[in-house]
Amino acid sequence: MQELWIPLLLTAIPLYVANASAVVFGGKTPVDFNRTWGDGKPILGKGKTWKGFGMGVLIGTFTGGIILHYFPTQALATSPEYLLFSFLLSAGALVGDMAGSFIKRRMGMQRGQAAHFLDQLDFVVGGLVLSLLAGPPYWVTVFLVLIMITPFLHMAFNRLAYLLGLKSVPW
Ligand code: CTP
Ligand code: MG
């Protein structure tokens, strides 16, 4: 258990940084170029932009590079290909997030409308599934722990953002 903390942290950091960077650096041009699906609704919607996608992948991977530089032993114990692993986590997070929006649009939900669990877990599942390609030894355990704690982390962050006056509601 003791030694699980490090792979857990070194997986969670690029994953969450990639996801958050897309939100912080979101742009204008939508990934779906405003096109609609056969049901007449947007394919993904205006909340998924190329800039958000690119910045998420770039900053998530770069964060992995910094971690690898300063903590090589711990990084390589997390995945023998840690830089590739960070890239796959980041790209997978953004693809998973888009898959989540695709599902929401097919369910007729407006852009930004809350879909509990889906909103919070799409990027975790996407990132972890793609990152399997980089052979992370603790994958199963890390996957299960992140799936379990992410909804709670999400609640805690929203509450903190509310207390800091960044959000108008605590959820
Ligand atoms: N964002 C982006 N590009 C992405 C992902 C996110 O530009 N690939 C930005 C958008 O400004 C988006 C914000 O981050 O509005 C919040 O992301 P998210 O909650 O995933 O999107 P929503 O707007 O809530 O849309 P959806 O209903 O599709 O989840
Ligand atoms: Mg949202």
Structure description:
The two termini are 31 Å apart. It contains 6 helices and no strands. It is mostly helical and 171 residues long. Helix 1 runs antiparallel to helix 2, helix 2 (50-70) runs antiparallel to helix 4 and helix 4 runs antiparallel to helix 5. Bound molecules: cytidine-5'-triphosphate (CTP) and magnesium ion. Cytidine-5'-triphosphate (CTP) is lined by residues 22-23, 26-27, 45, 47-49, 52-53, 94, 97, 101, 104, 111-113.
Q: What topology does this entry show?
A:
Layout: H1 5-24, H2 50-70, H3 72-78, H4 82-106, H5 118-131, H6 139-163
Helix pairs in contact: 1-2, 1-3, 1-4, 2-3, 2-4, 4-5, 5-6
Comma- or semicolon-separated keywords:
single chain; 171 residues; binds cytidine-5'-triphosphate; binds magnesium ion
Number of helical segments? 6
> In terms of structural class, how would the helical and strand content be classed?
mainly alpha
Write down the overall mean pLDDT.
Answer: 95
**Helical content (DSSP H or I, runs of 4+):** 55-70%
Give a list of the ligands. Answer: cytidine-5'-triphosphate, magnesium ion
Number of strands: 0
Radius of gyration from the alpha-carbon trace, in angstroms: 16 Å
Shape: globular
Uncertain stretches of 5 or more adjacent residues: none
What's the end-to-end separation, in Å?
31 Å
Order of helices and strands: HHHHHH
Classify the beta-strand content into a percent band: under 5%
Largest sheet: none
